Backbone:
């Protein structure tokens, strides 16, 4: 996948208007009648009416516990749930047997991390294909590699895995421009590396990490047989991520979450190579994920069922499928082109304000979805409060990426992030609202 | 904006009694994990000898190093200004009234007689996400008092009339 020359046209003003009309919440006002300017889609996206309708229709017409019962509703509910899996598989360019529904991205990453520590239990890998099973064995002397720009969800589960197994956590650093320090990759990824877990797009900086053919990180991991795990939570809403699941991509597993991708909360997706899923021990256990249960012990269903214990979030999966179809219908190439247009406009406007410092890559083509910045002498919370007073919703704080903020030597930042429905005029409103900040806090604007 | 009154901005820009000082009994470090705001705070208590207050602790010094938004830094400054040199029991009374005001969602305007300059934070109550910012220094203060051996049970009582 390239972030270089874009063949697709950005969305026109008319198209954005049509899209916005599909998102009921965008019509509301906030803080005393101001039109809402929602620039927090990196935290969670708003939902188009088709997603709300899909969930509602499931509950009004087909609701039953899926994969249980022989009655008609149970059949319909199961078909709806499995149909949603097919939509997710198409979105990913993968097979349905490689798509596991999880609660969110965080659960997907924990599911993977626990596969390693659970693999250490006696008999856990019995019968598993050794070419995958041996890659799940982790112990003292082994190393798990992450990056300094990870969201806590792709850091803390690996820290905990290392604590449980005695493995060592290492990380690829970030440079002053918010790019991975790949020049020193060979000091981090080596013969002892068993897993390289990294984000596709930084949730703070919008930095797009190169995971395409020739990616130095993927190549380094492959060279030593380490599994490559990708957090696609921030890229899935903006980019065609099918290249990541291609047979020769070198990526072994990825996660994304529904609620950032126009879908409901409570549903996420783990994709992994079929052989890896087959070798991985289960994470949550109980109903639905079993094959034969006896009092002494049980055997487990093949994936993806093996990882879907309990009655699943069927309505939410159906809603997510509707959200993914919405993105696909607009076309992810055009969604990306739209995002690039917003990114250039935002960086231009922020550059006009010397009292602001933008974090991350200066080149808009190196970024997707999010722009974080700091105002000299004004805490991000206070910036966010002034924006909120103008109806502009942004995120303030460390955005669940505390180590990255430490690396960039800022305690926190203000983040504007985009969705498919974000307009250029909203970015103008952000800039106008920011211009209130120097006056209120006595900066030389 | 009603949130950033002059008093808050003044305290945020020029925090009173800032900086960690000697001597002290206890130092605590508190963070707000949602935003990363941090405060280190020290207390130095003395015990009153004789009179009706015999044995009661007095806050001889409270010093701090606050890193955070204008609300949390100003709150630390006001805490120091309102509490320095006073009997601990009185500072707990201030806290109770302040806490009631901050968690009232704007229905309790605060009483300057009870909480002094801290009435400037009345606007914060309308922004639930910012209440924690204003309370961070006070939470650290209560923790420091408790670690220094002071009785802080009065802090959790409801203020009269509230």
Residues:
């Amino acid at each position: 996948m390239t972030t270089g020359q874009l063949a697709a046209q950005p969305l026109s003003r008319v198209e954005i208007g049509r899209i916005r009309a599909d998102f009921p919440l965008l019509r509301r006002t906030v803080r005393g009648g101001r039109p809402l300017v929602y620039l927090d889609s990196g935290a969670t996206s708003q939902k188009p009416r088709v997603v709300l309708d899909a969930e509602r229709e499931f509950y009004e017409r087909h609701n039953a516990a899926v994969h249980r019962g022989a009655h008609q509703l149970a059949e319909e509910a199961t078909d709806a749930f499995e149909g949603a899996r097919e939509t997710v598989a198409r979105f990913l360019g993968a097979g349905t047997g490689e798509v596991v529904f999880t609660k969110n991205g965080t659960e997907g990453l924990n599911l993977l991390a626990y596969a390693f520590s659970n693999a250490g239990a006696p008999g856990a890998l019995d019968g598993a294909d050794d070419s995958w099973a041996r890659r799940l064995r982790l112990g003292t002397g082994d190393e798990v590699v992450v990056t300094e720009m990870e969201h806590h969800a792709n850091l803390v589960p690996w820290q905990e895995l290392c604590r449980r197994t005695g493995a060592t956590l290492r990380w690829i650093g970030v440079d002053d421009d918010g790019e991975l320090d790949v020049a020193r990759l060979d000091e981090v990824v080596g013969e002892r590396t068993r897993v390289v877990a990294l984000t596709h797009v930084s949730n703070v900086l919008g930095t797009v990490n190169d995971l395409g053919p020739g990616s130095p990180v993927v190549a380094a991991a492959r060279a030593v047989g380490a599994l490559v795990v990708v957090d696609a939570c921030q890229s899935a809403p903006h980019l065609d991520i099918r290249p990541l699941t291609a047979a020769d991509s070198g990526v072994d597993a990825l996660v994304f979450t529904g609620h950032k991708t126009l879908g409901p909360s409570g549903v996420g997706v783990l994709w992994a190579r079929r052989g890896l899923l087959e070798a991985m021990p289960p994470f949550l256990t109980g109903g639905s994920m079993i094959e034969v249960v006896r009092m002494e012990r049980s055997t487990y269903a093949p994936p993806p069922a093996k990882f879907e214990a309990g009655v699943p979030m069927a309505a939410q999966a159906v809603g997510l499928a509707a959200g993914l179809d919405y993105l696909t219908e607009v076309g992810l190439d055009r969604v990306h082109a739209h995002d690039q247009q917003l990114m250039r406009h935002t960086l231009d406007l922020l550059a006009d304000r010397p009292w602001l410092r933008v974090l991350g890559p200066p080149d808009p083509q190196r970024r997707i979805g999010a722009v974080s910045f700091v105002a000299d002498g004004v805490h991000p919370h206070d910036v966010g409060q002034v924006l909120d007073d103008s109806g502009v919703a942004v995120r303030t704080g460390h955005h669940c990426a505390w180590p990255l903020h430490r690396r960039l030597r800022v305690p926190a930042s203000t983040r504007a992030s985009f969705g498919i429905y974000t307009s250029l005029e909203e970015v103008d409103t952000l800039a106008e609202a920011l211009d209130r900040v120097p006056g209120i806090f006595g900066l030389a604007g | 904006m009603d949130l950033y009154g002059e008093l808050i901005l003044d305290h945020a820009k020029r925090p009173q009694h800032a900086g960690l000082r000697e001597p002290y009994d206890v130092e605590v470090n508190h963070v707000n994990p949602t935003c990363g705001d941090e405060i280190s705070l020290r207390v130095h208590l003395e015990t009153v000898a004789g009179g009706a207050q015999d044995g009661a602790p007095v806050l001889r010094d409270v010093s701090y190093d606050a890193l955070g938004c204008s609300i949390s830094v100003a709150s630390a400054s006001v805490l120091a200004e309102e509490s320095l040199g006073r009997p601990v029991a009185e500072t707990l009374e201030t806290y109770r009234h302040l806490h009631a005001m901050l968690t009232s969602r704007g229905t309790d305007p605060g009483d300057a007689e009870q909480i002094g300059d801290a009435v400037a934070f009345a606007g914060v109550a309308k922004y639930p996400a910012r209440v924690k910012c204003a309370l961070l220094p006070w939470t650290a203060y209560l923790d420091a008092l408790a670690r220094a051996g002071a009785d802080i049970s009065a802090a959790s009582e409801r203020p009269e009339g509230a």
Q: What stands out?
A: Residues 30 and 379 of chain A are 23 Å apart (CA to CA). The domain at 13-47+332-438 of chain A is CATH 3.90.1150.10 (Aspartate Aminotransferase, domain 1).
